[in-house]
Amino acid sequence: MINPRLDDLHRRIPGLRLETAPAELEYYGRDWTRRWTPAPLAIALPANAGEAQAVVRWAGAHQVAIVPSGGRTGLSGGAVAANGELVLSLSRMNRVLGFDPVDRTLTVEPGITLQAVHEAAAEHGLAYPVDFAARGSCSIGGNIATNAGGIRVLRYGNTREWVTGLKLVAGSGELLDLGRGLVKNSSGYDLRHLAIGSEGTLGVVVEATLKLADPPPPTQVMLLALPSFDVLMQVFAQLRDRLRLEAFEFFTDRALHHVLAHGGQAPFDQVHPYYVVAELAMEGEGDEAAMLAAFEHCMGQGWVSDGVIAQGEAQAAQLWRLREGITESLARHVPYKNDVSVRVSAMPAFLAEAQALLAQGYPQFDVVWFGHIGDGNLHINVLRPDGMDDAQFVAQCEQVTRILAQTLQRHGGSISAEHGIGLVKKAYLPSTRSAAEIEVMRGIRRVLDPYGIMNPGKLFDP
Ligand code: MLT
Ligand code: ZN
């Protein structure tokens, strides 16, 4: 070590793994946003909760900023370390610590991937139902830090619903044991829920106890092509009211265009403005017939221009790939991402207004819409036109986001549905949260992070 501060950290916690090689700083200093140049001081990779706590205590005593780090698949800059911070990577803490068959809970370390949690639950004949495309890379600690949502929220809720216990090393250095797996606990403020979605600004999750669900039912997957967003909402209401929806995801022709540019086969002969991937539970005897009847009803009404019901698992996976491949297919363009929500009932009006404003003011942009209809969550990705330099692009995208924030305010929505505020949306937080609410959040942050070391600069400024 040549840095005296790191020498000191090394002396105080002798077994702690510390990385300072340029390639490691680069790797751990960024997330999927790719907009900031990584410049961390070093990477600390604790092997257990005791080491993680020791690092936080040392950082508090020495006023060193910490960036908690999981799979770094975030899209809001929450895990970016661009200002000499110490990255506290939980990636080595990735074990399943226990399964309780009576409580039906799984206790895990924070660095475990979502996919490994799925697999561990399945080994016990149960399921952890939060799911999204980054499952193989994202970590449960990061999911908790952003209250991650994904493709099954309309059926199972957000991450928040599934965390019954949480061990958090607060910025103060205290280890807080929150929730303790209790189903009922009416004993004052539920600090667990403050930690969930706090984006690493209050502390570091070092252990989580997750509630498990019954194994998923058999399902049918369909892909529908639709002429307008209004009919898409009618189809949603039909399927939701007549059947049991496990997922209802939408994307536009532009999204499909980018996925297919990456490989794969067009699902239909013609291009359509909107597409839906719907997954339906097939539990009861009449479910298959009910699904066909609903499908035929939607066709008969002229709501569905074309459609296919997957014949088997391979085709179902193929249809899902059209939706789940969107993020990856856009990544090489380094899109400017917006992740907004409004009440489900407000979606058609919001989308129509926002689409018109963008088409009028920013015709130069390829704007790609997709998202989670059942949750009122729309992803709006803006792509840089050929020849436009990055600074100009980002400046114009910020204008776009300002317009979206104003439109969201008129429709009572939020500037971040599931990605978090991080760095990307920090300037727009006041469009979603009142000044009084932000002041309360500041107060909470001061109590749990008295030295101001936990992910400074993220969510809001001191
Ligand atoms: C998704 O729904 O695919 C994710 O939130 C990722 C994204 O918005 O790109
Ligand atoms: Zn999403």
UniProtKB/TrEMBL annotation:
Its cofactor is FAD. The keyword Zinc does not apply. Keywords: FAD, Flavoprotein, Oxidoreductase. The keyword Oxidoreductase applies. Residues 36-215 form the FAD-binding PCMH-type domain. InterPro entries: FAD-bd_oxidored_4_C, FAD-bd_PCMH, FAD-bd_PCMH-like_sf, FAD-bd_PCMH_sub2, FAD-linked_Oxase-like_C, FAD-oxidored/transferase_4, Oxid_FAD_bind_N, Vanillyl_alc_oxidase_C-sub2. Belongs to the FAD-binding oxidoreductase/transferase type 4 family. PANTHER family: D-2-HYDROXYGLUTARATE DEHYDROGENASE, MITOCHONDRIAL (PTHR43716:SF1). This is FAD-binding oxidoreductase. It comes from Luteimonas notoginsengisoli.
